[in-house]
Design goal:
The protein has helices at residues 3-14, 18-37, 83-92; strands at residues 42-44, 48-55, 58-61, 68-71, 74-81. By secondary structure, it is an alpha+beta fold. It has 2 domains: 1-40; 42-94, IHF-like DNA-binding proteins (HU Protein, Chain A). The strands form 2 sheets. It has a 3-stranded antiparallel beta sheet with strand order 1-2-5. Helix 1 packs across helix 2. The longest helix is centred in the first third of the chain and has 20 residues, at 18-37. One of its GO terms (biological process) is chromosome condensation.
Length: 94
Amino acid sequence: MNKGELVKAVAERTKITLKEADAVISAVFDEIQDTVAGGEKVTLVGFGTFEARKRAEREGRNPKTNEKMIIPATVAPAFSAGKTFKEAVLTNNK
């Protein structure tokens, strides 16, 4: 499912226009992105948690030359699924 399909599904489920659904979904995504980029977590009970996770500096290898190199520390966005979400996925994929 892409964003357009999500907008259409939300519009049909909530009986609002496609334009209104797109505005709401875009606002939700923007707010999650801004909050996580600001260093805070976004927790949606039962669905999951969005957060920024720090990755430590580590040693890696260049796959072409097999030469050792240092991969610098970084911060990356992460998502942890909540219990209800995990159970729904497990139940529907048996």
